[in-house]
Structures are given as C-alpha cells and as structure tokens.
Amino acid sequence: MNSLKIKTLLASLALAASGVASAQNQLLNVSYDVAREFYKDYNAAFVAHYKKTTGQDVKIDQSHAGSSAQARAVNDGLAADVVTMNTTTDVQFLADSGVVAKDWTKKFPHDASPTTSTMLFLVRNGNPKGIRDWDDLIKPGVQVIVVNPKTGGNGRYAYLAAWGAVREKGGTEQQAADFVAKLYKNVPVLAKGGRDATATFLQRNQGDVLITFESEVVSIDREFGAGKVDAIYPSVSIVAENPVAVVERTVAKKGSAQLAKAYLDYLYSDEAQEIAAKHAIRPRSEKVLKKHEATFKPLKQFTVAKYFGSLTEAQKVHFNDGGQFDKLYSAK
Questions:
Q1: Predicted structure pTM score
Q2: Distance (Å, whole) CA 96 – CA 194
C-alpha cells in the first residue's frame, strides 16, 4: 500500500473516530410539552457540571411535544438518548418495545422519577366564574380547557385527578364516571399537549378554566406576564410522577450510555432539584421542597395506585381505544 493510500486511510479513520467522539458527547433529550423551560435551565447547569467534573464539553439538544406523541416518535426511530416524560405509561410503552430497559424503574431512585407535579386549575385574573373546586367545573356555562388524554400525559392526569377527586370524597366508581362525563361536556376542544392547551386558553382566549400541571403557572407568568391567570388549588388532586429513562437502543449505537446516565443521575442533585423548584416542579428532595414551601402550597393528594392500580392499568381501562374515555367523550 503506497503512502498516499495509507494517509487517506488514516484520515478516514480519524474522521470516523471524531464522529464517534462527537456522538458520545452529544445527547438528545425527548421530553413532554411543559418541561421545555425547565430543561433549558437544567441543560445549562448539567453542561457546566460535566465540564467541571470530567473536563469534557457536551452538547444537549431537547425536543418537546405531547408526551405520548413523543414516545411514539422515539419508538418509530427518533434517536433520543434519554426520555424524560410525565407519565410512566409513555416510558413503559418504550420498555415493552425493547427501546428502553425492561427494569427501567430500578435504574434511578424513586422509581426513576426525580420530580413530581400535580394538577390544578388556572383561571383568568380575578376568577370571574368563581371556580374553587372540581364541582365548579361541571356547572352550566363553564368551559374547561384540557389536553386530550390520548395524546398527552397532562390530559391523562387531569382525567384521573377528576375521577379520583370524586372517590376521595366518598363517591362510587359510577358517580366518578358520571362526574367526568359531565366535565367533558364542558370541554369545547381537546388540546394536543400542555403547551397547546395554554395557547388555547390564553392566545385563542377560549375557556374559563385550564386544568394543567402546577409548573405551568410559572411558565405562563414568564411568557405572558404575571397577573394573567390565578392558580386555584382544588381540595384534592393527584400525584403526577415525572419518569426518566436511558434509550438503550440509541446509546448502544452512539456509545453515549455513560453521558446519558450521568445526565439523568444529575437530576437528583441539589442543584437540579433547586432548578425544578424554580420552575414549580416538585422536587423529591425533602430539604429543597421545604425550602420552597411558599411555591408548593399544601395540597391533599392521592396516588394513581389508590384508585387505578397503576397508570398501565388506567391506560387499559380508560384511555385505550374503546375504553372509558372514548365511551364518555363520544356520548358528549
């Protein structure tokens, strides 16, 4: 082999090696709609932390939409290194497809959910319709904006929170079903994801109340200006876990497993938990949560397990095609 061929071969090998190195130092986080601003701040903190501890520069890209739509995109080939979702069913769907580890809940603390949230009501400034609790949402003339539970975890949690609120007050399953059916009769349009629901409520000026994650209050104040909405905490709501997982299929191809794990591990650090609190996402750290108790008002909460077994069970009963949601919504 002549020297020119050797040089060409060496140059090709160097280029390939640099491509592998850059793939290992670049990460795509595919996430849900209303976590956009949180991850923007978190990514900057993680990049600085990684540089300080390893000496390496890394680049983090983020993608946001309705959580279920995002999970389907990853399943269909979107090359996420990590997924950070708002319902366990979206991650479990990827586990069942072999895209993330079967035992993904055991890979990180708190069943791989570094933060939680809850569902509350956002009303227009001054609360003109006097909305205080779940029962107010089924009154005549009240229009409720909510995410389609078929496309986003935000919508599934809103539905389950409404159902469980009836049960928490001693109601039966049938009474819960009747209540949720009445609630959706007051829904003029189903939003695709959390941010779409916010846009419907504030930009298109539809509806009297928006059911959404607690964290959306901070996002709205930043984007639209403080004072546009009032946050109403109902008498009871649901614990919404925010699960995370490494996308094994992608990291195996890219060689980015170490970076992906480090990225998700750091979500449990005090710095990351503080950033979550700043975005009104409930930190798992009791110390950080206590420090921000003015943000996180005391609220009676129930778990998904209490009335639905698990989100996977709820998915089968309520949200799969032909399930409870389809029945009550089609009867609207």
A1: 0.83
A2: 25
